[in-house]
Amino acid sequence: MKVLLGKPVADAIYKKAKARISLLREYGYIPRVAMVQIGTASDDTYYKQSLMRQCERIGIQADDVSLPETITEEELIHQIQLFNENQEIHGVMIFRPLPAHISNEKISCFLDHCKDVDYMNPDNLGKIIIGKSRGRLPGTPAAVMEMLDFYKIPLEGQGIVIVNRSLVVGKPLAMLLLDRSATVTVCHSKTKKLADVMRRADIVVTAVGRPELFTASSFDSHSVVIDIGINKRADGSMCGDVDYSSIENRVAAVTPVPRGIGVVTSAVLLRNVVYACRQLSGLSMVAAFEERWG
């Protein structure tokens, strides 16, 4: 069984991003992102601090924006409009889920699509469907693609099951895989005989958010398993949607949790900031710059 670790994939993304940040700096631009946390959830705080440390390592300027959980929808929209108008900010990352009184859909619409690091603005989601995303993609779906490509797992003609139909993961990932000529089945809580459907697939991607739900009975010995789930056991330890111990050495390959998709997702999100800086600076229209960008 091959263990698909995320760190080598993330390191490759950061290495390329760092080189492109150096190029942007030569032209007088420093990629800058506003990291917006609403409330004080410890998981969000930890993740934000981790991202900010990585920004410092590769040369992105990160603004730590903490807002009270009581902020109104109108106040948050006003804050987003200030980010949209600030020409020195190239990306905005809003930690989700948002408080229950704030509409995720409305907030995604108000954020400038060029500064939308998570790629959740409807205009950006539409670009994925028509294949016009120009290198910027939603964090988790892009991380899955990066993982599969890095480990040279073939996609063309392969049967791929995605157990998730959300706008964050399942739907955009299905579009990306279809663009690579995979045969995609999107499953969900209403899918009949789910384990049978999963077992017939060449590649299975799970993102259901239920700790260790899937056991060896859901997979075949040839299965490549991409576990996106980030869950906590009763003892507080982290695990995925897949019961790793039950499938160990019983599938062809698997991403562990932790040390799997999560670190790649972070790398993709910061890469999106670099792409946004390039787009908003207008340097993509400069032939000499684009030649070096590659």
Topology:
Layout: E1 2-3, H1 7-26, E2 32-38, H2 42-58, E3 61-67, H3 73-85, E4 91-94, H4 104-110, H5 122-129, H6 139-150, E5 159-163, H7 170-179, E6 183-187, H8 194-199, E7 203-206, E8 224-227, E9 231-232, E10 238-239, H9 244-247, E11 253-254, H10 261-281, H11 287-293
Parallel strand pairs: 1-11, 2-3, 2-4, 5-6, 5-7, 7-8, 8-11
Antiparallel strand pairs: 9-10
Share in β-strands: 5-15%
Q: Quickly name the level 1 CATH class of the largest domain.
A: Alpha Beta
Total number of β-strand segments?
11
From the spread of the alpha carbons, the general shape counts as: globular
Distance between the termini: 35 Å
* Rg result: 19 Å
Number of helices: 11
What is the third-level CATH name, the topology of the largest domain?
Rossmann fold
Q: Name the strands of the widest sheet in spatial order.
A: 1-11-8-7-5-6
One letter per element, helices H and strands E, the order comes to EHEHEHEHHHEHEHEEEEHEHH
Q: How much helix is in the residues? A: 40-55%
User: Segments where pLDDT lies below 50 for 5+ residues?
Assistant: none
CATH architecture of the largest domain: 3-Layer(aba) Sandwich
At the fourth level of CATH, the homologous superfamily of the largest domain is NAD(P)-binding Rossmann-like Domain
- Largest beta sheet, briefly? 6 strands, parallel
**How many domains make up the coordinates?**
2
Report the average pLDDT across residues. 95
* Classification by helices and strands: alpha/beta
